[in-house]
Structures are given as C-alpha cells and as structure tokens.
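SAMPLE LOG
Freezer: B-3
Tube label: C17
Construct: single chain, 75 aa
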Amino acid sequence: MYVMFPIGIMYYFGTNLDNRFSVKGFWPTAEQSHKIPHDRDELMAEYKRMKARERLLKERRGERPDGESGRGEGA
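STRUCTURE (predicted):
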C-alpha cells in the first residue's frame, strides 16, 4: 500500500506535476514581497512611513490625530 500508492499516482498523473498543476504568477516575486529593514536608517524610514500611513487613516476616519475623539464633553 505505501509503495504502490505513490507509484500509481506517478503513473496516472506523471512525474512533472509542477509544470502541469502550477499557476504562473501565483507567488510574489522578490521585488513584490516585503523587505525587512536591517539597519537603523531603514528602520527609521519604515517607522516614519507607518506613522504617516496611520495618520492618513485617522484623518480619513474623521478622528483627530492628537488622540481626541471630537465627540464632545458629555459622550
């Protein structure tokens, strides 16, 4: 059973399964994937980018960037 099942699969489907069942462009290329910052300058640039993105999202939601909700004193 343990020997004949893989042999039967290879006989039925063939041995070039990567070429037959793979989807071209499914995995991102190295340029499209995330790059992990390694030195201090790259870390600071990434931190500034993240803070700017969060500030932009808060502005889009209508929140104040200083942390106040803008609801009023009773709420």
